[in-house]
Design brief:
Chain lengths: 82, 82
Amino acid sequence: MKVRILVSLKDSVLDPQGQTVRNALHTLGYESIKDVRQGKVFEIELEGVSQEEAAKVIPEISDKVLANPIIEKFSWQILEKG
Amino acid sequence: MKVRILVSLKDSVLDPQGQTVRNALHTLGYESIKDVRQGKVFEIELEGVSQEEAAKVIPEISDKVLANPIIEKFSWQILEKG
């Protein structure tokens, strides 16, 4: 099973990395870009787990390893079943 | 318009960051995780651009600023229109 997990800063948390990217884009003339938020994406290959087990494991590893739950949120989706 | 851009290493490029995460997960007992690839995600707010203009601007800024086309690939999707 292939799973994609998106980890991004909570909306209430400042994102200096994203702001730097936005400023760089403005300098290059892309004035239409009003806001940039940067996060992480993990694509994970799981073997021998059911969808129910994945639904337990993914939030667990996201909270423990992939994201910092104090300042980050995560979402996930299954890309390939089986 | 809100757009999400995913930037990840090309399949042929080693991902030591992802491997470190996988090893950490194995150490914690998550043996079902066979592979981890880590990438970046950008959520971008565009103003005053049509969908056609976005389809021109997004690949442009991805190639110039967000990704390194030598070793990275990108994909994008519109999250919110208008």
